[in-house]
Amino acid sequence: MPALVAAETSAPVLPNYTAPPFPVTAKLDLRGRKVLVVDDDRLNARILTSILRPGGYIVTQTDSAEKALELYATFNPDLVLLDVVLPGLNGFDACRQLKSMYGDACAPIIFITAKRESEDVVEGLTAGGVDYLPKPFRPKEVLERVRVHLQNRVLIEQQQKLVAQLSSANAAKNRLLGMAAHDLRNPLASIRGMADFLRDGTVGQLTPDQLDLVATIHEASQSMLELVNEFLDISVIESGELKIRPSATSLPELLTKSVYLNNINAARKGTRIDLTLSETDRPCQMDAEKIKQVVDNLLSNAIKFSPPASVIQIRAEYTDTHCSILVQDQGPGIPAGESHKLFKDFSVTSVKPTAGEKSTGLGLAICRKIIEAHRGLISAENHPAGGCVFKISLPLT
Amino acid sequence: MNFSGKILLVDDEPHIRKFVALILKKFGDPQVIEASNGQEALRLMRETPPDLILLDVNMPVLDGVQTLGAIMQENPEAIVVMLTSLVNRQTVEECLRLGATGYIRKDTPSVEIRSELLRIIIDCFGEEPADLSAS
User: Fold this and answer.
1) Which residues does residue A377 pair with via DSSP β-bridges, in sequence order?
2) Predicted model pTM
3) In this prediction, does ipTM exceed 0.95?
């Protein structure tokens, strides 16, 4: 491979790198690129070679399509100049064969033709050619057209290489996140749990100062655990491993369980979660664990963003085809113009939690991905009476 | 106090054993025997047959799934609850298929772990520890 281009050795795109508004590609060095000339007219072939060689290209010539197909495999050209009228297989058919043999990896093919009628041009282009060179040749035109198409090919190759590099870097990031999250999770859960036991007096009474320290340990480990869980979720979801395993689920049962546990946290802020269940209890097809995760997230957000001593309402509704879960808080609502941020990765709005709780901006993005995997919808809007209503809607079957 | 059975607690991480043992204390006065891998668990199980086994999935020497298989072969009536961290549901389903009674996620809050364990104990032993509603 000849040494290419500035772009290949330049630094990879860094997070804080801002691309100029109109990127300008430096002229690529195309010397050493290989051109295959196919023309049964010896003189034409020689003229083309004498035009191209001073441009730094490596040129090989042949006089039939059949030989060209054979040569292509060994010479491996970066560009083919192909006469249309040839003894035996014609240029268009040779072009189709090359395209079907090499697909997208096939070198760009430029037809050499004396015929300038548009029909021929069209047939050449539909056969997979990229351009045509009219005879008689004008050296500057030949060099310019060859340069343009070689350059396009090099740029495409670079893009493909970059995309492959970025995808594998992203996969590595997801693996790292997943591994780190795994190994942090258990110890954090133990720290949190043991702080809990110290706080609730399981192992004896603490002084107020000790209680204060223990509460801090509990809160810090709690928010770290949430962060780690969210990282892990994101890495699982991004690597395409979010598997939904639906089974017939009772929504009232799921909501009762989630509300019971979240009420324990809510009580610390003097807040209460009210669950309203309709008479209906139709089984819904859903991944109960994942949906509970979404409900838990909506409730913990509602607690976070509502002022102390609020009431959070949650209820289930059914239509013929869907079930919905609505969570209404008494927080400040979604600021005007910020609703687009809600369900995006690492995106937080200008609203702050009311007791210094942490927010990663991942929770709702994860919720959205889980709900979408259920073919459902998640949305949020401000309530006319204040606060904000989050709504999940899931198909029953 | 109500539940005073023998519980075999198997996990390679000491802090998890300490944490789960504290939760178990809330059920009364159970006798908790600890093991740090599957092989040790099988040995202890033979020495002192437990009423309930709490079994970690990822462990060195002999992992939870293999240990579960061995336990069920020796005693198909054994009550085994798997301790998992990340819900690797394929593994969980495999364990349930092999005869595990249920599973508990170690990374959930202690109240949640407690209520799950309580449910399983009531289901299996028909007893309700007295002080649970109090905690």
Assistant:
1) A393
2) 0.58
3) no
